[in-house]
Every structure is written in C-alpha cells, then in structure tokens.
Design the sequence.
C-alpha cells in the first residue's frame, strides 16, 4: 500500500516521503520518493523522514528495505550512503527507461 507524508513547516509543505509497504516483486518495503524543497535542504529533514520510514518498516516486522535512485545523481547516492544504504544493483532501468540503482538497508538494529 503506498503511503505519502508531507513535512509541513510554518504552513508550507517542504518535503515529501512516499513509501510502498510491500513491493509486489520482492515483498519488501520500499522508499519510493524522498524530496526536500531546495530552501529546506541541509537541515536534517531528509534524514528524519528516512528514519521515520525505517521505523515504520521495522514496526511492520520488516528486516530490510529497498529504494532506487538515479545512477547519475551523486548527491542522492551520497545522501543514502551516508545513512547506511548500500547499492545492490547498478544500471537497471526504471519504468521510464532511466538508469537507476537499487539500494538496500538492513533494518536490524545492532
Ligand atoms: C537528497 C535529499 C533528500 C537530502 O535531504 P536533506 O534534508 O537536504 O538532507 P539532511 O539535511 O537530512 O542530511 C542528512 C545527512 O546526509 C548528508 N547529506 C545530505 N545531502 C548530501 C549529499 N548530497 N552528499 C553527501 N551527504 C549528504 C548530510 O550531510 C547529513 O549528514 P549528517 O547527519 O552527518 O549531518 C534532498 O537534498 C533532496 O530532496 N534532493 C533532491 C531529490 C533527491 O535527490 N531525492 C532522493 C532520491 S528519491
């Protein structure tokens, strides 16, 4: 089931998080989209929304989660890597034929 959440700051939506609780192909939860408005970036909002998604996935009993990001978008790749996500598949095509990489993270707390 897709779920979307918006982070609102002083009445304006500044970020969007969209998740799929169970992907039809692998049965895992996926982060589908995380976008923080340019003016609100660098304030920890992306990190807190990613943590919120992980907490929700854990609460559902999931042990790992996935997402995909554009292969060429180094800023996004570096953001997810900094949060502990690791690439498991490179240069795969999304539904629009764009080159994306699939990343995965274990949700098991050490
Ligand atoms: C990528 C994005 C979601 C990050 O959100 P943000 O709110 O700006 O990031 P945060 O302020 O929460 O940063 C969290 C951590 O990641 C690091 N980080 C953020 N962007 C980074 C980048 N481009 N490269 C390296 N590290 C980065 C921060 O330094 C921070 O580290 P810290 O916790 O040690 O201080 C946001 O910049 C964005 O929406 N970009 C455009 C869309 C996009 O790329 N979405 C992701 C693919 S779906």
Sequence:
């Amino acid at each position: 089931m897709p779920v979307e959440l918006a982070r609102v700051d002083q009445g304006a939506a500044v970020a969007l998080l969209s998740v799929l609780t169970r992907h039809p192909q692998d049965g895992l939860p996926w982060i589908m989209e995380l976008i923080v408005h340019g003016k609100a970036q660098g304030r920890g909002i992306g990190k807190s929304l990613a943590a919120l998604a992980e907490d929700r996935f854990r609460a559902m009993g999931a042990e790992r989660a996935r997402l995909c990001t554009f292969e060429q978008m180094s800023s996004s790749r570096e953001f997810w890597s900094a949060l502990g996500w690791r690439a498991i598949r490179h240069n795969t095509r999304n539904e629009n034929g764009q080159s994306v990489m699939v990343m995965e993270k274990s949700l098991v707390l050490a």
